[in-house]
Design a protein that fits this description.
Blueprint lengths: L27 E2 L11 E3 L3 E5 L4 E4 L2 E7 L6 E4 L13 E3 L12 E7 L2 E6 L11 E8 L2 E3 L7 E3 L6 E3 L9 E2 L6 E3 L11 E2 L2 E2 L2 E7 L3
Parallel strand pairs: 1-4, 15-18
Antiparallel strand pairs: 2-13, 3-4, 3-12, 5-6, 5-10, 6-9, 7-10, 8-9, 10-11, 12-14, 16-17, 17-18
Length: 213
Amino acid sequence: MKFTKQKFGGIRPIINGTPALGVVGGFNLDRSKVTFPVGAIIPGGSLAQYDEQTRLVTVLKAARVKAINGTDAKIVTLDTDFIPACFVPGDKVLKTVSGTFSAAPSITKIEDGAGGYVITLSATISGLAVGDALFQVIESGSDAVLPVDAPQGLTLNAETVGTLVRQFETGVDVTTDSKGYMFYKRRIPPIPTQFISGITLKTNPNILFTDSY
């Protein structure tokens, strides 16, 4: 008996219910600290921090390591099977956020094709392993820090797979209350451990997580 294989595209739910839409209308993507190219897709479930006064939302760029080149550890493949990645060359990334900004490796090259989403770093990251998370860092004084320090929630999908970054203003929907439902941590961009407390977002316990697939 002969079989044929067919691959079907699609998306996976990032939460096991319907969260409340907490930040909607009049809030735009802040690109002053985090660069997003026009046409990029911000994945749903990205960690977000907003400012009521400026009406701007800062989104953390993060991804998991899928593979590391066996001969050059600066070449890293990121897991983007269901989660779009929106890094750009020049972004600085770290596994553990510490040290000076100047010492943090930067992305020198991005290849997004048949071989996967592959980034080349300016320097190796000590101890980096498959399954680890990489987070974009920005400069504060001379330190490398995350662009968010007290995130209130997670982004929701404005389009099918996320939020499309537009040429000028980009509206961003953020939930600040998962209404008792739980976000699948394995299906959304990784969140730094300092922002997780048990099954909740440390800076907003109304956001719940599950490790279930």
